[in-house]
């Protein structure tokens, strides 16, 4: 179902609207949560999408789509479930917390529509198959930074909203580290499990169902026939 793609321009109104949103979100999140909040996979994907719409380079949109499509699909399912009183995971409980400002919750709603935008960008620009390795390397680096340099689950924080246990490097519970296995084993499981269970299946789906973009060096150049060949064919 896929085919080789020539990139199609991203409409200007999408570029401007999306960039304006990120321009509002970035300083607000920086003030409320601090710069380490941007180590979350979804926030990295947000900035990759900005790079994609302005550079028109498929690799940026493809990396972001590989990285967050499945996790954000779970976010979407839980959010819709919350609307009908049947949450799937509880991961979007905060979106219905009246103690959190409506403005902050409105900004966080990007988790719902960002994967839709990314799939649109990949459809317009083409899927770059190098995205699987590129995003996996990026994710591994982020996991190491979050594990060794950021506050763990249950840590005493410098301020109430300080991000901790970023990208779940200490377990799924932010209040305490997981107890199922040694911490390094959990980290190793993330190193293997995220690419195997989330990134690779997404990669397969994107390269199968969306147009593929081939890097310019892999495209065969079109060679114009020589004058002698043209004369020979004419005769």
Automatic annotation (TrEMBL):
It comes from the Bacteria. Keywords: Membrane, Transmembrane, Transmembrane helix. The chain crosses the membrane at residues 12-30, 36-54, 102-123, 132-150, 185-210. The keyword Transmembrane applies. This is Membrane-associated protein. It comes from Rhodopirellula baltica WH47.
């Amino acid at each position: 179902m896929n085919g080789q793609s020539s990139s199609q321009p991203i409409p200007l109104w999408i570029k401007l609207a999306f960039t304006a949103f990120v321009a509002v979100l970035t300083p607000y999140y920086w003030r409320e949560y601090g710069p380490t909040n941007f180590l979350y996979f979804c926030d990295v994907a947000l900035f990759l999408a900005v790079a994609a719409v302005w550079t028109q380079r498929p690799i940026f949109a493809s990396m972001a789509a590989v990285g967050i499509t499945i996790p954000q699909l779970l976010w979407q399912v839980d959010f819709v479930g919350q609307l009908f009183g049947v949450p799937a995971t509880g991961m979007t409980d905060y979106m219905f917390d009246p103690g959190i400002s409506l403005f902050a919750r409105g900004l966080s709603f990007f988790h719902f529509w960002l994967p839709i935008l990314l799939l649109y960008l990949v459809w317009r620009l083409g899927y770059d198959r190098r995205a699987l390795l590129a995003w996996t390397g990026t994710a591994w680096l982020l996991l190491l930074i979050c594990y060794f340099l950021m506050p763990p689950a249950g840590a005493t924080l410098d301020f109430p909203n300080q991000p901790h246990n970023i990208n779940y490097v200490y377990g799924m519970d932010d209040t305490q580290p997981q107890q199922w296995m040694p911490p390094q084993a959990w980290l190793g499981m993330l190193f293997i499990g995220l690419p195997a269970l989330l990134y690779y299946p997404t990669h397969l789906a994107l390269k199968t169902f969306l147009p593929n973009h081939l890097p310019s060096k892999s495209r065969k150049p079109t060679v114009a026939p020589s004058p002698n060949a043209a004369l020979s064919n004419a005769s």
